[in-house]
Amino acid sequence: MLAALAVPLIGSAPASAQPLPPACSSSHLSSFDYAQVKRTTKYVTVVYVNTSPDVCVLRGYPDIVMFGPRGPIHSTQRNVFPASNKTVVLPPNGEAGFVLWFRDVPVAGVDPTTGCAHALNLHATIATSGPADLTVQYAVNLALCNDAHFLVTALQHGVPKP
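RESULT FIELD:
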């Protein structure tokens, strides 16, 4: 008989629950991303994989900074659902990720006089154990217009879908 390894999402643990495993170390995580456009919205999904032989935990929302040709772009990150899924237990080879979405589709040659900023890449930072958090750079081609805001989910178990 095979026993299944249950990897639950943990919000608040009952008093009788086992303590959580340690936080994931940045040296034991790899990542990948992919983007898709649906109508006038661009989605970027970022996934982290636990490459260590040990169970570990990722928590919370990532911190996102957009960069254009001249450096950081002032933009507003709005954290959205699922607020209850802020802690994810990752087994070896387990995956967790988050989704960002933007109201404006990619635009080449953005004209700054129209109020749009041209984002070329983003840096996503998640808290980890060890001396440094994990920051990964991803290439994007976005026109951040209006109030230059974007939405981001909390870390979720598995590969999240937009």
